[in-house]
Design brief:
With about 325 residues, the chain is α+β, with helices and mostly antiparallel strands. About 45% of the residues lie in helices and about 20% in strands. Strand 3 (about 45-50) and strand 4 (about 55-60) form a beta hairpin. The N and C termini lie far apart (about 45 Å).
Length: about 325
């Protein structure tokens, strides 16, 4: 066996200064982040890949909406390192001592500033037989959905402490030859702790109404971005969707923790920022601002600086 073959883990720590770079650095996953709070982005990813399982810690400095997919064949279990009232997962507000879990084919999360996420991402090929051994029944059907499940404060803290310990231990093991059996034991220990923290009974009765509200919010966003250069007013969006302004506002607050006006403005500013960074030679700030419906250039520049900490002209120069 070669030295490379004796090291089945891949451990890495990546510090980032760019939101898109941070999202793209999560290998094999298709994620997109939108900045929701003022400030310059700073991120950190600590990741350990074990056979059929990935351990993760993610630190981010600003409020974000994270959307995308991991993989059809994986399931994720995640938790905030410190509880926050401003954390949302697939249209569900995440209470204290709660676990976010589900299949990796659809991820949608709103995270607050100065946030740390801990998580495991596990292949079905590992989770299914382990689940059957632990519970003497097939993998729970609700894991195909995206759920927020309550655990106790003691189990939550035990899980947080163990995740950080295992991340450090596995990272250290990855730097030298080791016994693969020790890594498998470490892997199984942390996965079993996540599973044991889940409640015995799971109620999915509210999922249809949650999914309906999320679809409504996503449809409103699609409408707004579909008319980027001449953004629809909130009243026009409501008219096209056949809903009241009050209902739209209620759904946005439930799903994203903010109002439609604030979120959709952030969405257009994020889109303008990406366009500035990818602009071809000769493209001006005014060209991009007007494309995204910002007709008052001075106001656009001020709003842009308030959110991203620099003027749009500085972003364009650095592209």
């Amino acid at each position: 066996m070669t030295l490379a073959e004796s090291r089945p883990t891949i451990a890495r720590i990546l510090n980032t200064q760019d939101m898109d770079q941070h999202a793209n650095a999560q290998q094999g996953w298709a994620l997109q982040y939108e900045q929701l709070s003022p400030g310059q982005f700073k991120g950190r990813i600590q990741e350990v890949q074990l056979p059929e399982l990935t351990l993760l810690r993610e630190d981010t400095s600003i409020a974000l909406r994270q959307r995308g997919r991991l993989d059809d064949s994986v399931y994720g279990f995640a938790m905030a390192l410190k509880d926050s009232e401003d954390l949302f997962f697939n249209a569900q507000r995440v209470p204290a001592h709660a676990i976010m879990c589900g299949k990796g084919d659809d991820v949608d999360m709103v995270t607050p500033p100065h946030f740390t996420l801990i998580a495991v991402v596990v292949e079905r090929s590992l989770l299914n037989p382990l689940w059957e051994r632990m519970y003497q029944k097939p993998l729970a059907h609700w894991l195909e959905k995206q759920l927020v499940l309550q655990t106790t404060d003691i189990k939550a803290q035990t899980l947080r402490d163990l995740q950080l310990t295992v991340l450090d231990q596995a990272s250290a093991l990855a730097q030298r030859p080791h016994d693969p059996q020790a890594l498998r034991q470490l892997r199984d220990e942390i996965l079993m702790e996540w599973l044991e923290a889940l409640p015995a009974q799971v109620d999915t009765s509210e999922l249809p109404s949650l999914e309906k509200r999320k679809k409504l919010v996503d449809r409103a966003c699609e409408l707004m971005l579909g008319y980027a250069d001449e953004p629809l007013s909130i009243l026009e969006v409501c008219s096209r969707m056949g809903i009241s302004r009050r209902k739209l506002n209620y759904c946005f607050q439930d799903v994203l923790g903010t109002t439609p006006i604030k979120y959709l403005r952030c969405l257009r500013l994020n889109s303008a920022r990406r366009a500035l960074r990818q602009a071809a030679a000769g493209v001006t700030v005014q060209d991009i601002a007007s494309h995204w419906g910002f007709w008052h250039l001075s106001q656009f520049a001020q709003d842009y600086k308030n959110l991203f900490g620099e003027l749009p002209s500085a972003t364009l120069r650095s592209s």
